[in-house]
Amino acid sequence: MDRLDRQLRLWGGFGHELLTSSQICFIVERDDDPLLLEVQRHLLLAGISRYLVFHSDRRHPPSRDGFAFINEKEELQSLNPEIKPHWDFLPWSRIRTQSFKDTSVIVLINCGNTHVLQELSNKREKCRTFPPVLVTVVHYPLAYTYLWLKEIHFVVTTNPEYVVPDLRINEPWDELFQYVESLDFCKMREEELAEIPYPLILSKALRETSQDERPLHQKLDDYFLKYSAQALNDPNYRQAKRYARQVNRTSELGRQRAQQLLSRLERYQCLNWHDFFNDRLMALCQAVGHFLNKYHQLPLPSEFPDMEAGTQIYNDLKMIYQRKAQEDCRTMEVILAQLGYPDFPKWLAEKFCDNINDWILLEPDVSEPSMPGIYSGKALRRYVSEKEKIIPENEKKILGVLARFSRDSYDTNTLASFFPATAFLGGVAAQEVVKLVTHQYIPIDNTFVYDFISDESITIRL
């Protein structure tokens, strides 16, 4: 399996396209910072080829980072021969005139210069739109990142490890209802009953035991074992027993979750977007709101899970679900056209509908118009002393880790000596950049701290 195949499995075709068309901006003290090299190494392997690097134009003593013996540009280019990387190196003074219009993510790397941070804050405040900023620092024994958002960030799919399939067993549409009604368990032999997919078993049981007020998982044996005494040993029936508890929950929970997310989006309806993908996802969310109001249901995802069943009856059922998913997606496209998006990308509408139960959004912290003062020692000590009065007892360890930030300065010439910390944070920062660019997987919200001495990490929202 080659590298591209692995990436397509991770991010899909659209995610890979977003990566290859993105531009990443780095703001650093020195352009040979080992953390910069480490982050770029991961991003080049992911297929990102355009980089804008702002750095101090003052002369630095020779680096003691162990990279002095290589030609960094040649080494980085050799990592991914399939792309032609391009770098633009500019002095810090050019930040003021930079629009950042084509920049996907800004990454601050070991940059504690007060003037630069203030300049970036001013630039961000004056711009109507601005890319997400990722602050990354190795301050041994700590390594930390902070995500600073100007606009909300949509995650089109969180890629959860475990997904409960949304099969609408308790809310069938006409075609599914008629198919379930056409089955007569009384006329089937036991070997035929052993091939029935579990959604059909649950649908029949739910419908024919409607007078019994017990939960479905409690009355399923009474209903089905009268047709097949051996069913307890059948894989399809064991699967039905396992999913019986979730029949009445999946669809309703999905609607409630979507309505909560949509209500959070109301304040952003008229926002201009830096991220084109965010703009398109906002349109999809508006369409989902109309879909919910009209049909009182979410679009059906097209993915149909594997299950213990006979091949023919499984394929018949799968086709019923896929036809419904395609119909719902076409309905979404009609709604999008009515909202002013007649040429909306079909693949994106399909992707969104397929992940309708897995999308989320991250909101910016509106209380932080400028670069957070938490990253200076004095501000942090003040923050810790204030939080100590109100923080719950089970979160006291957070203060212990944060208190180690309280040194007022760090020597960037010594940062590179900490290879494990640099390698670790380089991987974390690059991973966060890829999440932000592809809108897949959940970015850290919003601060991640790792302590190399205690081998502990925390994620907190500041």
From TrEMBL:
Annotated Gene Ontology MF terms?
ubiquitin-like modifier activating enzyme activity
Q: InterPro entries given for it?
A: Ubiquitin-activating_enz
Q: Write down the Gene3D superfamilies for this protein, in alphabetical order.
A: Ubiquitin-activating enzyme E1, inactive adenylation domain, subdomain 2
Q: What is this protein called?
A: NEDD8-activating enzyme E1 regulatory subunit
Q: Could you tell me which species this protein originates from?
A: Zygosaccharomyces mellis
Source taxonomy lineage?
A: Eukaryota, Fungi, Dikarya, Ascomycota, Saccharomycotina
